[in-house]
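Protein folding task:
====================
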Amino acid sequence: MAQSSPTVLATDYYRDNFEILLNTVHRQYQDLLSQSERNWVSTYFALPVNAKLLYIRLLSRKGLFFRISKLRYPEISPMHHAVESLEACGFITVNRSDWPMAALLSLFTKPELLNRFHAATCHELWDKNKTLKQTRKPELIEALLSADLTLSALQETIVHVEHQAHLTTFLLLFFGNQHQDMSQFVLADLGLHQFEQYKTDTTTRLFQQRHHILQWLSLETIARQYDEICDRKENKDTDTLVQLTRKLPGPLYWQPLERRRQRLLNRIGRDLERQGRDDLALYLYRQSTLPPSRERQVRILDKLNRHHTALAISETMERLPHNEEELEVGQRLSIKLRRTLALPYENISKDNFSQETLTLPATSQRVELAVAEDYRQQGWQVYYTENALLCGLFGLAFWDIIFAPVPGAFLNPFQRAPRDMYHSEFSERRQSQLATRLEAIRSDRWHDWLNVFEQKTGISNDWVNWSLLSPDLITQTVDCLNGAQLHAILSRLLFDPRHNRSGQPDLVMFKNGHIKWVEVKGPGDTLQPNQKRWLRLFQQLDLDARINHVLWQM
């Protein structure tokens, strides 16, 4: 079979993508855009093509300052005309004397700095620092700053790109997050990602009020500052974290934003707890309803000998858990606290999984592959799928419901799942359709697994790993499982999509119409809580599932 030729992008491909971004956001959010943002869009479209190309290139690069002499874009010619057009409309600023010299010097390499300033502006500095040429670039810049340089000493045309904040806002409105950027367009242009077709317009947009946009950007700034603290030695500086907590807003009444705030509260609270600031950590956890906030509250209160208060929270975790993991944690904490308080309690029954030990010849391959080969020699048809099989069945069974037009679910053409996929809102907002589909599967009235597979092959779906699924694997699996078993498996995934999509057995295998699941454990490896939960479900469904502990024969 002949290989298809690689996709070749046009030299100005990025202009088309940038204008899709501008037009889409302007069309969907015109009523929420500021006058400055609307002017930015109209001014851009009035620019000459060369100026548009240069502006997009500058916006897409890291940093805000650039040396014109270092810009090499064959499609932009003549460069100086583009620079003049951008300066005239205020999209760039050229050679301002009040710019920070440290930022400008960082645009030059160390050899360039040594060559440019040797025995000239910094002649006296050189005499005082005989070893300056052996210093690192940051130290060299620090030394040059003491020479009180002016912009003219750089002998360069330097520009500062303006309105970067507008691009940040437009990317947020387009993608609904701040981790996707213009590179997503390129992946789609190259055919590396294919996406489902769904409706995006003013009726499906995420933001409905201007102040929600501003609150989101403000919260993201705090989150970025927290990440920077964690990346530096300051992550051990309690005072820095305490100062950051003072910037956090109070409760936000728009749920998507409040959820982001609570995730940040949990992260900062955990760091403060590790640094011994239990009081402040407890204060932050109490503002969050997201796991593991209640668990952390219980553990801090237990440490502070406030056992009755801790027990009340742990029992609430048991009675009204956010997910299975929180339920199990609540059970364990309640037993511990009841022991401490000399109150009656019931022990959690121990698991009794089918287990066996395999002694296999030592090999350099993954332990799962070695076990798979051993079963193949016994006549089994083995697939090493980990989580891909059951998640794939989920994606196929609910494909049309996952990509149904729900307001706020799809904001741009590059989504692998709706925005609420991993929140309780996903099931709540599609309850009727999901219940109907599950009942059809339970009663053996829905058999479209392969039809969906054939129609959607290659299209991005967060649940479907096309490289590990095949028609044969799907057919054998659904033929070996009855409607009640499929219903239970899919219902468990639906109950908590974020956590239950992992922990499934490594291997699935077939022989004579029988299906077997195997969780492989190499030397020293133990079962994780999410793996235990899946094995318990298989036991309840009377499915053949076991653990294989591997010993290497040297």
